[in-house]
Design brief:
The structure holds two protein chains of two kinds. In chain A, 24% of the residues lie in helices and 21% in strands. Chain A is of the alpha/beta class. In chain B, the strands form six sheets. Chain B has a five-stranded mixed β-sheet, sandwiched between helices. Chain B has a five-stranded parallel β-sheet with strand order 14-17-13-18-19, sandwiched between helices. The chains are: A alpha/beta, B alpha/beta. Chain B: InterPro entries: DUF5927, Glyco_trans_14, XYLT.
Chain lengths: 316, 565
């Protein structure tokens, strides 16, 4: 709650939010190059309003966002780390504006994919979830990467990042259950394979629950990996069946990544003393290629469903 | 004017109006019932929207909470109004506001004209019904349900349990045989008016007002009293999922719906613009007269329910993580584990790949790295060969490998020198075919050029690990296909066991093995074991190798490979 005082509104258009609006919440820093495609992608999906926290950008992100007609923007120069990596800020905004809405919480490099997303808008999904009395929807992070050294193909603003980062790992994810919160803990993918092969327990968590019919009593605990109350984390079936789920295509590994890793290392604002970025930094110095001969080239959500990375559940 | 539509509406009124206009425009009168809980403003707008359509009426409004009497009362009121206002109507078709006609009205009219006396209503006795949710079949008719299922689920369930325990039973009115069925029917004027004008109607109503989900039983039961020609099926395509809620149709179902040849479908997602556009504009090239054939759609939705309830065997992912014993297949496909074979035979892996046509890996759980087939460092699904990654979650490693290689039988070597954590999982998995030559790990030691004290220490350790592993394989909960031979027994007669293993692996294997794998030279092996004994170790897992009496096929290295006739 005290974190609310850290947020300063830049421009508020929350009056435009209607009772059935689909809301997207995000926190970001210096992502100008990504923003045009990000906004376009989610507008086409059917997001009605963006609520964004800008954590001290100095690349023009703030000015760009402030001009967008469907964005409400807050800014803060406080510590990303001490706000538990932005969770506190977004929890506050969600409590204030998200109550009763379907809310999608994603980073600017995460692109939400769900069953039938090529033929049915996001509202078809949320309507179905409402009708099925489902309150939270899982979407695992799928790290996407280019073929060849990460920095080799420059990303142009407005471009679909998956024209470059079109490859992914299809079947090397490990899962265990987190008894404390009841969520699954998923690790693996190219990051575990290349950066954490000798410290697998430190590989980043890939499980996420980004889409929730928000209630003011809900809260994300750590990033969007887990929620309270615990029941919201039960996005998986325990009796053999499959619940519906999606993926967050992760466009982290573009040429922007090296710059980002340097910057984040300098700021020391990430999880576990930025161990993740330290590992990247070390690996980045030899300009890594995440691609291997078993890498899978992304086609569409049906491919991900066949590979078992996501499921239609009983949505048909 | 042979068919009239009764529409029960509670939401998406723009779509309801669009469909009502379509039907009325094609000469079918429409009576609309709007849920009483809908705001007056919305209803007035709907009435205004349809004011220019002559054959549309609005019936008196009832509150329609799901599973309650209100839905039947609404239907009675609207159907009564239809019969009074439009004397030319012969069939009354009950639809909802989220229904969409799939075939031209003229085809429905023609279809009904050919069957002027037929009542289309799904009507099944409680014993034969297979789709009710919550296990309430006959009890719908014999218990009381004063509490809302939606709002007070616990009270509802508790009261049902209480009545069951007390043995409470309501009396079913004499002469009525309870029937259930889809609430979307199409009845003839004769039948419908007979039900509505029945002198017993009031007493039936009193009874059905307290029946659970009367809209699925009131007409379905009474029609059996008055109709001589019940066709027990619904003309409306309406599928239900495993929670008992209707499946919803979207734009991408267009082709399926077209091919279904059903007259009406429900429910349609209100924003499925393409569907509404496609089916409400007149189709110039009317298709041949066809019977409704929802087979493909049935399969689609049946598969969806199966995916939700049973899932894909051997898949562990973000939205499927079954508890132990609920996996429906712990792994995706059968696979084989060989213990001691690669130690006893010099070319076992190549030989096996050749004769059985399968993928043969080395020791997948070797301590230094994963020995994938062909020495690969990355394998299917981008699985790395890092031992640390594998040992971080050996179970995920194995199920991933089997999942990633669906369609190709996987075999791998295992032994006491490997990481053992996976043992228990292997033993419980019915897909695992585990063949063990116990004590065969001693063969490489026998051939090694190491100091005997090291060998002795190593042998003791391996024997201890393998004994524990064998205890797991002989446990009570073993579901794997396990075969265990001692080294001595196996060496005595290797072809028969090999043959039965290969036979079990699959149809692609030849009926008879013609070539044996090359066995390691065991000359002096008995003495080697004796030396271990002399040093104080007790090698027991190999079986009986008397010192000095070398086993029979010990000389196969030099001669022809061992052949079976």
């Amino acid at each position: 709650m005290r974190k609310r005082r850290e947020l300063r509104p830049v421009v508020s258009r929350v009056a435009a939010i209607r009772p059935d609006s689909l809301l997207l919440f995000s926190t970001l820093r210096n992502e100008l190059v990504r923003l045009p495609y990000f906004l376009r992608y989610y507008r086409e999906l059917g997001i009605n309003h963006f609520l964004i926290v800008d954590n001290g950008s100095d690349d023009g992100s703030r000015e760009y966002l402030a001009e967008q007609p469907d964005v409400s923007l807050w800014t803060t120069d406080h510590s990303y780390k001490r706000s538990r990596f932005g969770v506190d800020w977004l929890n506050w905004l969600q409590m204030r504006y998200g109550h009763g809405h379907w809310t999608l919480v994603v980073d600017p490099d995460e692109f939400f994919i769900y069953p039938f997303c090529d033929t049915r808008p996001l509202r078809a999904l949320t309507d179905w979830l409402d009708a099925s009395s489902i309150k939270s929807f899982s979407a695992m992070i799928l790290d996407m990467y280019p073929k060849g050294p990460i920095g080799a193909q420059p990303y142009r603003t407005g471009q679909d990042p998956f024209e470059i980062a079109k490859w992914f790992d299809s079947g090397n994810y490990v899962i265990s259950k987190n008894r404390a919160y009841g969520n699954l803990w998923i690790q693996g993918g190219p990051r575990a394979r290349t950066f954490f092969a000798d410290a697998p327990e430190r590989a980043p968590a890939l499980n996420k629950i980004p889409l929730v019919k928000w209630h003011r009593d809900y809260a994300y605990v750590s990033s969007t990996h887990m929620l309270l109350p615990r029941g919201l984390n039960l996005v998986y079936d325990e009796w053999g069946g499959e619940k519906a789920s999606g993926c967050l295509l992760h466009a982290k590994f573009l040429d922007t990544f090296a710059v980002k890793a340097d910057e984040e290392m300098a700021r020391q604002q990430h999880y576990a003393n930025s161990h993740e970025y330290r590992a990247y930094k070390a690996a980045m110095d030899d300009s890594p290629d995440l691609w291997c001969k078993w890498s899978e080239k992304y086609i569409n959500w049906r491919q991900l469903e066949i590979l078992g990375l996501m499921s239609k559940g009983n949505w048909a | 004017m042979s068919v009239g539509f009764v529409m029960l509406c509670h939401t998406a009124f723009d779509r309801a109006a669009q469909v009502a206009r379509h039907w009325a425009g094609h000469g079918c009168p429409v009576v609309i019932h709007v849920d009483k809980r809908v705001k007056g403003k919305t209803v007035r707008k709907l009435m205004r929207d349809l004011a220019d359509v002559p054959d549309v009426r609005f019936s008196s409004r009832h509150a329609c909470e799901w599973g309650t009497w209100g839905l039947v009362a609404a239907t009675q009121a609207a159907a009564g109004l239809m019969l009074r206002e439009f004397p030319g109507v012969r069939h009354v078709y009950l639809a909802s506001g989220s229904c969409l006609p799939l075939r031209p009205v003229s085809e429905l009219v023609a279809y009904l004209d050919e069957r002027p006396k037929t009542d289309f209503i799904e009507s099944v006795t409680t014993e034969d019904v297979g789709w009710t949710v919550g296990g309430l079949n006959i009890e719908r008719f014999t218990l009381r349900f004063p509490f809302s299922w939606r709002k007070n689920r616990r009270l509802f369930d508790g009261y049902v349990r209480l009545q069951r325990r007390l043995g409470f039973k309501r009396r079913i009115p004499p002469g009525l045989v309870p029937h259930l069925g889809s609430q979307w029917w199409c009845l003839t004027r004769q039948t419908l008016s007979a039900i509505l004008e029945d002198p017993e109607r009031e007493s039936y109503e009193r009874y059905f007002q307290r029946v659970w989900i009367p809209d699925e039983s009131y007409f379905q039961t009474l029609v059996r009293q008055v109709s001589g020609n019940v066709e027990s099926r619904s003309l409306t395509l309406s599928k239900f999922d495993f929670q008992g809620k209707p499946h919803i149709f979207y734009d991408d179902h267009l082709q399926l719906l077209r091919k279904s040849d059903c007259f009406v479908a429900r429910k349609i997602w209100p924003q499925a613009d393409k569907l509404y556009r496609a089916f409400l504009t007149e189709d110039p090239g009317a298709q041949a007269v066809a019977e409704p054939n929802p087979g493909k759609i049935d399969r689609l939705f049946a598969k969806a329910v199966e995916r939700r309830t049973k899932g894909r065997a051997g898949l562990y992912m973000q939205s499927r993580f079954p508890n132990q014993d609920w996996e429906n297949g712990m792994t995706a496909a059968p696979y084989s584990v060989f213990e001691g074979f690669a130690e006893l035979f010099e070319n076992f892996e190549t030989w096996l790949g050749k004769v059985a046509g399968v993928r043969v890996h080395g020791h997948l759980f070797a301590p230094d790295r994963v020995r994938f087939s062909g020495g690969e460092t990355v394998y299917n699904g981008s699985m790395g060969d890092s031992a640390m990654l594998r040992d971080y979650n050996p179970r995920s490693f194995l199920v991933n490998l089997i999942w990633n290689t669906r369609g190709e039988r996987q075999c791998f070597q295992f032994g006491p020198a490997d990481e053992q954590k996976i043992s228990e999982f292997l033993s419980r998995d019915p897909h695992a075919q585990i063949s063990v030559i116990s004590g065969a790990w001693a063969v490489p030691l026998f051939h090694s050029n190491r100091n005997f004290s090291d060998i002795r220490r190593e042998a003791a350790l391996l024997q201890k690990i393998e004994s524990q592993h064998l205890a797991v394989l002989r446990g009570l909960h073993v579901k794997a296909r396990v075969r265990i031979w001692t080294l001595a027994d196996f060496v005595e007669n290797p072809m028969e066991p090999l043959q039965s293993i290969i036979d079990e692996i699959g149809p692609r294997a030849p009926r008879r093995l013609t070539e044996a794998p090359r066995m390691a030279d065991l000359t002096g092996f008995g003495q080697f074991l004796q030396n271990l004994r002399n040093q104080g170790m007790q090698p027991v897992l190999m079986g009986d190798f008397p010192a000095g009496d070398d086993p029979r096929p010990g000389n196969t290295r030099r001669g022809r490979p061992y052949l079976v006739k």
